[in-house]
Amino acid sequence: MTAAAFDPQAGYVVTASTAFISFNDQTFATFYQPILGPVAFSFFYALKARLLPNPTIANRTLQSDLLAQVNAGGQQVLEALHRLEAVGLVQTYFQHDEIGDVYVYELQPTLTPEKFLADNLLSILLLEEVGEDAFERLTKQSRQYKLASSNTSLTNVSHNFFEEFHINSQSITETPQAILTARKQSPVEKQPQLTVGMSDDFDWSTLIHLLANQPIVSADLENNRDLILLEHQLYGIDAPTMKTLILRSIDLQTNHFNPKKFKQIVASAYNIVYSSTTKVAEKEAPVTNKNSELTSKDQELLATAKDYSPVEFLQVLKGQTGGYVTSGERHILTGLVAQEKLTQDAINILTWYVIIDRGNSTLTANFVDAIANNWLQHGVINGEQAIVQLKTFNKQAQEKKTKTPKKNKWRKTIKEPMPEWSKKDTSELMKKASSQEIAKLRERIANRKKK
């Protein structure tokens, strides 16, 4: 979304992809809702209720009615929209025309439960949110209609297309015009991709070498490379540790790598509640930064930020305050890692600023996104630049705070004229009146009464 806030006065139109016909409410409620939260869940149905046949830009309505429908604030709705976009259920488009700003929200279908579980990001988030027991129940639910019998000798005897249907051979070699026209009018749409190409700083060749003589189907490693790299990015898992986790995830009967079991093992191994009070800055690390703007403490912090994965770094910070990493915080860090716009150490500096410097108990999506966007707009992408940006921000804030406020120019000092009696000497004011003055005063009073 191009705006920094949800604008109630902007227009909106709801559309849907051609594949939206396969949207499944049951899948949405059981698989998506736990990771989306109640506001995003309600917001999606608020959008779905506003679908119109053949919508146009002229069908726009003010976004204020969405706020009223969801009964939530602008920031809550904006965060809900971002979550729906992140899981691939909404694609947002924007334009400014002569009428004003307008957003087009294109609804996307749910994945099938099987595809949802096969997606690395979505399945990991769901596992962390609902726990292993509930995750296992959902897995069984998605396969409840599969044949449960084992040790069968079934053979597929289904007929193929050409055994039952016959098509003019010329129509196959030369596609009819009506079909070509239909394809142009409605091209095949692709499901939004949740993952982007991740930076491969993992020593993949070493991992392959370590697993060379182990009982594992080698093709499984390459087929699950994205999953392994994602877990490395999130938790900073090195090759020897990754080898151990992978071996624990092998099906002993078939020697095949089990992705679902692997996710469970990693989530269990790294979902740690730290009680240690060891400070992050105390971890020894070589200081290589030469930037004159950084103090020795800044350099220590930077070195430590480079040495920890994002989740591990947050876990250690939470250990200092006696807290723990929530599933929502994991979701936030997963998003930052997947975007690949900030380096690992920059993400860790951002986390340190929110939790330690600002004293917040948890990471919140809106605050983290605001800082990350601000940094990117100022060309900040790594940890060193992040620290310098924070120092500059704090310096400007302190200068603004200590600046002497200016006097209001519109306030003028008004001088009232002093009465004549105030200019007389005190002794003169206290002097007794003569008999003649008293007589004159009585006569004046008598004349006033006659009127």
Automatic annotation (TrEMBL):
GO terms for molecular function: helicase activity. Residues 403-412 have a biased composition (Basic residues). Keywords: ATP-binding, Helicase, Hydrolase, Nucleotide-binding. Residues 398-429 are annotated as: Disordered. The keyword Nucleotide-binding applies. Residues 315-388 form the DnaB/C C-terminal domain. Residues 18-238 form the Replicative helicase loading/DNA remodeling protein DnaB N-terminal winged helix domain. It comes from the Bacteria. Residues 413-429 have a biased composition (Basic and acidic residues). Belongs to the DnaB/DnaD family. This is Replicative DNA helicase loader DnaB. It comes from Limosilactobacillus reuteri (strain DSM 20016).
